[in-house]
Design goal:
Elements: E1 6-11, H1 19-30, E2 36-42, H2 51-56, E3 61-63, H3 72-86, E4 92-97, H4 104-111, E5 116-121, H5 133-153, E6 156-159, H6 162-169, E7 175-176, H7 183-186, H8 190-199, E8 206-211, H9 220-233, E9 237-242, H10 248-257, E10 264-268, H11 273-279, E11 282-285, H12 294-301, E12 305-309, E13 322-325, H13 330-339, H14 350-356, H15 361-373
Parallel strand pairs: 1-2, 1-4, 2-3, 4-5, 5-6, 6-7, 8-9, 8-11, 9-10, 11-12, 12-13
Helix pairs in contact: 3-4, 8-11, 9-13
């Protein structure tokens, strides 16, 4: 047997650092690269997040553009050409997706005899819904057939939660792989807290944190409604929003109209989110739906009190510091946040509870490595 590491082709990275990207990079940073090395296939020509870091760790990035708009012939041949040339270099392909219509790489991986073909579901609902009924009906029909294609093309069906698996695979059997977190990285640190709060000009304010893409799924405008309501009762609260997305302009407009400039800090995309958790006192995630909600695992590991919607999988309840509320009951959210006693004691021990629930990155890597090596036996 060769002493070289097996190579796994990862798919699903974009130019926006979200839950999928966090999952892949958490695994890649911590996996034993003498045994398993990742390469990355992207179906666009944009720069994906962490490109420079990926290259430093020995990963290659293959950008295969197959848009009909750019080149009709290339659209039908690009993936075939790629796998024909490179398939023999990979033991497996790991397709990470929030949608059922992204299994085409698995078709060619199967054609060119890549033994391990994983489809990994990271969402529990369609992220982009149309206001037109006919469009939604057409999409449902399309997704029905796409889901059948997944089952024909994949050798392993994985999901970040039961909800994500049931959405993507219907009644087919799948395995839940917990989105592991590098817990030591998120462990509460008083010095980092002081450093970040000083950087953000925060003194004794109570900081509510929000981390996620600024889009419908994460429901960031609801977070603004909450801080607006809280501000009517107590002006010592600030909302720290981390992320970017299509709702950014609406968020800025809402802040301006409701005179919340002094109460909301917009940080955009950051690569030091693990430090920002330390500066927060409460974490908020009012999602309309979630495959899992890995930020809730990170926030609990940092010892934060978490308030989230009842649309989020209960798999995220890894400590007693999390509560779930209905999005129809805005006042319940507001009251629960105001009633939270802000104490810093025992925050540093929270990561131990998270680790006991199997959300340490080592547990995730152990499970994935076992699946990856099935194709090298």
């Amino acid at each position: 047997m060769s002493n070289k590491p097996i190579r796994i082709l990862q798919c699903g990275m974009t130019d926006n650092y979200g839950g999928v990207e966090a999952f892949i990079m958490n695994v890649y940073r911590n996996i034993d690269k003498s045994k398993v090395q990742f390469d990355f296939l992207t179906l666009h020509d944009k720069k994906i997040v962490c490109e420079d870091e990926i290259k430093k760790m020995g990963g290659r990035i293959f950008k295969v553009e197959y848009s009909k708009k750019d080149n009709l012939i290339k659209h039908y041949t690009a993936l075939n050409t790629f796998f024909k040339q490179y398939a023999n270099e990979f033991v497996g392909i790991h397709m990470n997706s929030c949608f059922p219509n992204y299994s085409l790489p698995l078709k060619y991986a199967k054609k060119y005899n890549i033994n391990i073909r994983i489809f990994h579901s990271h969402n529990s609902e369609d992220m982009y819904k149309s206001k037109y009924i006919i469009v939604e009906l057409m999409k449902k029909v399309k997704y029905f057939f796409e889901k059948k294609m997944i089952k024909k093309r994949a050798t392993s069906l994985l999901a970040c939660s039961d909800e994500a698996g049931n959405y993507m695979f219907d009644k087919s059997e799948f395995k839940v792989i917990k989105n592991g977190v590098d817990l030591e990285k998120f462990r509460y640190n008083e010095n980092i807290r002081k450093e970040i709060r000083k950087e953000l000009n925060l003194r004794d304010e109570i900081v509510i944190g929000f981390v996620g893409r600024l889009q419908y799924q994460k429901n960031p405008l609801f977070a603004l409604e909450i801080i607006k309501k809280i501000n009517e009762k107590n002006t010592n609260y600030k909302l720290l929003m981390v992320g970017s997305g299509i709702l950014e302009s609406k968020i800025k407009e809402y802040i301006e109209i409701n005179k919340l400039n002094a109460n909301v800090i917009l940080l955009g995309q950051r690569n030091d989110v693990y430090k920002l958790y330390q500066a927060m006192d409460i974490f908020l995630l009012p999602s309309n739906f979630e495959g899992l909600g890995i930020v809730l695992i990170e926030a609990q590991a940092a010892g934060l009190r978490c308030i989230t919607s009842d649309n989020v999988p209960l798999l995220t309840k890894v400590t007693n510091n999390i509560s779930y509320y209905n999005l129809e009951e805005l006042n319940s959210w507001v009251d629960s946040i105001i009633e939270i006693p802000i104490l810093q004691t025992n925050r540093e021990k929270a990561y131990e509870e998270v680790n006991k629930k199997g959300f340490g990155i080592r547990n995730t890597i152990k499970e994935l490595t076992g699946i990856y090596h099935e194709g090298n036996e």
